[in-house]
Design brief:
single chain; globular; eleven-stranded mixed beta sheet; alpha/beta; 48% helix
Length: 306
């Protein structure tokens, strides 16, 4: 297990890594910033319980008081949840800045992948990956999630890519970077809270044994790119894809009318969609995070058997 002067491991995670037991690294951005307090804390506890019940140790990754936390105590979860709205969003490039300034930060999937790969955790759980944004041909707005996937040897369990993105270009980017995108029980890329995107996948797998075996084979050939395991949200919580696309188109038109441009468009679109979709989108997000954590734990447990 690695040691680093800027990283604190929870005792549970430290013991699991030392004993080579399965651990799941969990993104904090979706849970702690995407969901209001106190529901964010309740969701975090539900996620950790789900990971444990499915055979792995949960490790929420965060930055608190200038320290990277790999695994958090119940008290830290509660305090961190209350900090919602005051913390900096940390992708890979911001980790060092936030630590050096002694500040607090929520980790994106990109940052979670970077730290997880560094400390030896193979499975990452999150909501949905970032990607190539609409209008990226002029804004160059491309999520660092994609570059980290190209350079980190981890499996990212998520509900596909966020629906506000240019999903076709996102898939093209991942293909160019040789990142495997596997549909878990689906032939189509999920679009975050929507099960359908209209984009067909070239690989579908229906069991964690095959997924774990694929990861081992990839490593045996020295292939160090990551894998995306796209897990569609349960139908009972899914948002209608046609309605979602309609709202996104409305948001795009509104952003143009209001003169929103460049990287500011991303935050604008996400806020607009959440406001329009209301409580349904919030319940979908909570369920999706918990559901993905359960699958991530199953995959981690299967990897730990060999």
């Amino acid at each position: 297990m690695v040691t680093n002067a800027y990283i604190d491991f929870s005792e549970e995670v430290r013991k699991a890594l030392a004993e080579h037991k399965p651990v799941v690294a969990i993104e904090t951005g979706g849970t702690f910033e995407g969901i209001p307090y106190p529901d964010n804390a309740a969701t975090a506890f539900a996620v950790m319980d789900m990971v444990r019940r499915n055979g792995a140790v949960p490790a929420y990754l965060s930055i608190m008081d200038g320290r990277v936390k790999v695994g958090m105590s119940d008290e830290e979860i509660e305090r961190y949840a209350r900090l919602r709205g005051t913390m900096q969003k940390a992708s890979g490039r911001e980790i060092a800045q936030i630590i050096a300034q002694g500040r607090n930060g929520v980790m994106t999937i990109a940052a979670t992948m970077a730290v997880a790969d560094y400390v030896g955790i193979s499975v990452v759980s999150g909501g949905g990956i970032g990607g190539v944004h609409r209008g990226a041909e002029t804004s160059m707005d491309i999520s660092s999630d994609l570059e980290e996937l190209a350079n980190r040897n981890v499996i990212v369990v998520c509900s596909g890519a966020k629906s506000i993105l240019d999903l076709k270009l996102t898939m093209e980017y991942l293909e160019t970077k040789s990142v495997s995108v596997i549909g878990y029980g689906t032939d189509e890329l999920p679009a975050y809270m929507a099960r359908s995107s209209g984009i067909k996948l070239t690989c579908r797998m229906d069991d964690v044994e095959t997924i774990a075996r694929t990861y081992r084979v990839k490593n045996a050939f020295g292939i160090k790119t990551g894998m995306v395991l796209a897990n569609p949200i349960d139908e009972a919580y899914a948002v209608d894809s046609m309605l979602m696309n309609q709202v996104i188109e409305e948001a795009i038109l509104r952003s143009r009318d209001e003169g929103v441009s460049g990287k500011a468009i991303t935050g604008y679109l996400m806020k607009y969609v959440k406001e329009k979709m209301g409580s349904d989108s919030m319940e979908a997000q909570k369920h999706m995070i918990i559901q993905n954590a359960a699958l991530a734990a199953e995959v981690a447990a299967e990897l730990g058997r060999n």
